[in-house]
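FYI - complex with phenylalanine, inputs then prediction.
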Amino acid sequence: MMGIDEKVRKTLAELGVNDAQGVESLFAELRKTAERERAELISRGAPNQPQRERFCKALRDRWLARKGGFLSQVDENWLKPAGKDLKPAVGRQFNELRRFTASLEFEKLVEALPLGSVAARPAPRDLTLPGLRRPLGSIHPVTRMQREIEDIFLSLGFWIESGPEIESTYYNFDALNIPESHPSRDDWDTLYIDSNTVLRTHTSPVQIRAMEKYGAPLYIIIPGKCYRHDNPDSTHSPMFHQIEGLAIDEDITFADLKGTLDFFAKKLFGEKVRTRFQPSFFPFTEPSGEVAVSCFVCDGQGCRVCKESGWIELMGCGMVHPQVLRNGGIDPDKYSGWAFGLGVDRFAMVKYDIHDIQLFFQGDVRFLEQF
Ligand code: PHE
């Protein structure tokens, strides 16, 4: 059977109504429907005040809305196009309907609607409806990058070590050969908790802790948060992430370092990338180097990602300084080793083409859900 919603959209001719009696029963049906819907709403009630107001407004609009309400549709589709012979009957009925719906006092329904009754009555369950799904999160891009890097080194037999973020100046500086006068120990670069305690400025202190704990041979990577006295901008954050690598064994040479990092770069950025080692300086490695990889986007031609240089700086590295091995309780005459330190956030920015490091730490779901 055709519902009221459908009937008011048709003309009387389309409905096959062509005499006064047909008109009368059609309007009677409308009045009955209005009365029934009002009664149903009252018996259903509303769980709370906002819902109560919403339900009442919905019913009122359904009938009386100036645009699209049933009464205006009746006016538009039944009354206006009605032929000469039917028009008086339709007009009379229409006035009657107006009076009737006014008497139902939809505006005053809010007070008539019992509160809390919807919640109180158990609704019949439709077990065929889809269940409620909680929105799934995704892995944070920095975590994702970290895991990707970890996986490569785990596959080479390294294991994962960690250490404290609140660190002594001994492990963060002294044991790593960083003298009291070194600029990185300055208040302006390091966040001090007290004169002997800092928020670690790199993951390198865990080198010493691991040497003390395990001795040699040692093959570890150390992911973790680091802190520096930097103002936040698109490439700096006072908190950032590093991964440290450390290999100590008999007969470890610079060739092992080059081979391992070249393998790593190819695994992470693709087989066709080349690595470049340039001399550098760190107090805890000798010799020290900076590693760059040929741009994996333009293959070294120069593009936006490599800032037209063809190369992307990856990390600092070097052969562990004999004094650092000694500080860790390892005999430098028997063992040698290499180490590297890389910025995970920077890796993620390069790999995912992100131009502002702050995006990682703002928790904006619109950014995070892209990963
Ligand atoms: N710790 C150095 C830094 O934070 C990186 C590094 C680690 C360099 C290990 C050489 C060897 O910049």
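Residues 202, 204, 244, 282, 285, 316-318, 339-341 surround phenylalanine (CB under 6 Å). The radius of gyration is 38 Å.
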